[in-house]
Amino acid sequence: MTVRPVKTFFPKTRLAEMAAQLGGIARDEAIAGAKESVELLREEGDTEINRSIGAIEAIVAGSDRRSLQEADMRKILQLADQIVTLAGTFGYTALDKVMRSLCDVTDGLLQARLTDAAPIIVHVQSMRLMAPGSTALSPQQTAKVLGELAKILTHYNFCPLAAQNPSE
Amino acid sequence: MVQPRANLKSVSTLLVDSDRFTRGLIVQMLRGFRMDAPIVCDTGAAAKSEMLQHAVDLCIMESVLPDMGSPELISWIRRPEMGVTRFIPVIVLSGYTQHRIVAAARDAGANTVLKKPVSPQVLFDRILWVARVPRPFIDAGVYVGPDRRFKAEEPPDKNHKRADDSTADATSDEPMADTPTAAAAKGAFR
Asked: What is the pLDDT of residues A10-66, one digit of tens each?
């Protein structure tokens, strides 16, 4: 058996060359500019969040409310993941937590090959409460909702996705 | 204090993400960094086609594309047939539910993996990090990409004096400005 020799290169990339050029923008200025640009998308982002929430609600409404098909769960997971990105970007902290919890539960159900709809329905009701444009809950009410959702994860003994080892 | 500056204006960026809104967010961030508008694609096949037609300096891609995973696209980029393009920095964006693919993307030759949502701070610092902190490029057959072995230690006296003192972990999604390696990142920002 022949062993292929390892080749090592020390490339100077064009990105490195350009980043080393004189002039340009200071870090704080770049970040402030980017935040400003992203903020321009807030309204569109709110619409997109509500559209995705609506799509999840439609999937649940189309079920018999006792069980969900695997394909439906995968679609919910995809939509919820998208909402996590948007909620995090635009600072909807409570919604972000609800959606992460929905992802954790849905992924856990899929991994365990369970079809229970109830834990997902509870999350769907909660995310509507936290959606942009909804009446704001008090911090105590928000904490209560999040606490109840956490119990679902504990009940099923699912590990949050964020705590799982990516190399597994 | 006068901040050092970075000139990224004419960097040719390829952005590959199937989600229209995420693409919009990243485009807006790059615009804020005063970078030219990126080439935008929503599939791996479209990305391959663009890379064969245009010189690309930086690739930012979603971890799971509709027609292939990021590992497959990265492996394609890292082939010897791609010439100097095989060395371009690749930043992978991973969704909350896509963590299982992080290790695969890294092992396929990604320079760094960032978890969505990506803040402007994290994206800017990572772009500068991949640009300014040199890493050898390894072709070992089973692995082709930037050297995955680099020190994750503070300087002995914990005093970052030079850009070379950078100890940033490329696979971490921690905002560099908030970690002990912030000084290293800022040191690299010259």
From this structure: 999 999 999 888 888 999 999 999 999 999 999 999 999 999 999 999 999 999 989
Report the CATH architecture of B13-188: 3-Layer(aba) Sandwich (3.40)
**Residue A17 located in a structural domain:** no
pTM for the complete prediction?
0.84
Question: Position A35: which residue type?
Answer: K
CATH classification at residue A155? 1.20.120.160
Contact list in A for residue B141 (CB cut-off 8 A) is 4, 6
pLDDT (0 to 100) of residue B182: 40
Q: Do B95 and A81 touch (CB under 8 A)?
A: yes
Q: How far apart are CA A16 and CA A63, in angstroms?
A: 53
- Closest CA of chain B from A93, distance in Å: 12
% of chain B residues with pLDDT over 70: 76
Dihedral sign from CA coordinates of A149, A150, A151, A153: positive
Residues in chain A with CB shorter than 8 Å from the CB of B119 are 89
> Mean pLDDT, to the nearest integer, of A64-92?
95
Q: What is the pLDDT of residues B100-131, one digit of tens each?
A: 788 899 999 999 999 999 999 999 999 999 99
Residues in chain A within 8 Å Cβ distance of B102 = 166-167
- What is the least distance, in Å, from the CA of A40 to any CA of chain B? 9
Examine residue A167 and state whether it is found in any structural domain, yes or no: no
* Alpha carbon distance B145, B111 (integer Å): 8
A57 touches A128 (CB < 8 A): yes
In a domain, A110, yes or no: yes
Residue-number span of the structural domain to which A56 is assigned: 23-161
**What whole-number distance in Å separates Cα of residue A94 and Cα of residue A86?**
12
DSSP assignments along A82-139, one per residue: HHHHHHHHTT-HHHHHHHHHHHHHHHHHHHTT--B-HHHHHHHHHHHHHSTTSPPPPH
Domain assignment present for residue A115? The answer is yes
Beta-carbon contacts below 8 Å between A and B = 185
